[in-house]
Amino acid sequence: MIRRCCVPGCKSNYDSTRKENSQCITTFSFPKNEDRRKKWIKGIPRKHWTSTVSSVVCCLHFNPEDVIRHDKFLQPDGTQKEISLSHPRLTENAVPCIFPNLPKYLSTGVKRKRKDPESRREDAFQRHSAAVERFLNDDLIKDFSDFKNNFPQKVNMCKWEVKVLENCVYFFTLNYETKLTIRNCERVSEHLTVNIHLNKNELSAADLRWILPVNLKVSKWSQIINILARYQEPQKIVALKM
């Protein structure tokens, strides 16, 4: 006997949709357990309706993971064999939740099978590696044109004033205590070399070895950000011991 699905809009096993000699779509009777039966009725978007002994739901409305189509058993020699079930069965917690012929909001969606711990760790590592690579690429200063055009978006200048010239950019803080003077100044040249003066004293390569190479050439936005953050306040010049 051909059993037709009771879900609204579903035409499974109806004469109008069945092709000649095609197999019937698997259907499942409502659970005998009252709590599970109520969950099925609640899950099906059909108002003022209750199931009968002949009501069935086809397999198209269940998550694929909830439909068991194969069974496994151990053979006498200890090996495992898998056989196809003539009539699939459902997992204990299966509930109708997919309704392709109804508005999408009525479907709760297909459950994603949780990956094993090793796969999740590998995915997390790949995401982390990709994030690090994006950061490193975004942190690179390509050339002076890139620096001059993008430093307003890349750098938090806070207490720094800025003067942009054709072949260099000056960052400086002002002293308002007596007369207006420049307190600290950082100059980035067209060759991306950096010169820093604190209270008229120029810092040497040794003073800046914590952030810049010996040639004092900047190549990353993070270097500029750290320099400006460190030297925005009045500094006491201390010679570094080599």
UniProtKB/TrEMBL annotation:
Record domain THAP-type: where: 1-99
GO molecular function list: DNA binding; zinc ion binding
Tree of life domain: Eukaryota
Keywords tagged on the record: DNA-binding, Metal-binding, Zinc, Zinc-finger
InterPro entries according to UniProt: THAP_domain_protein (IPR052224), THAP_Znf (IPR006612)
Entry-linked Pfam families: THAP (PF05485)
Protein name: THAP-type domain-containing protein
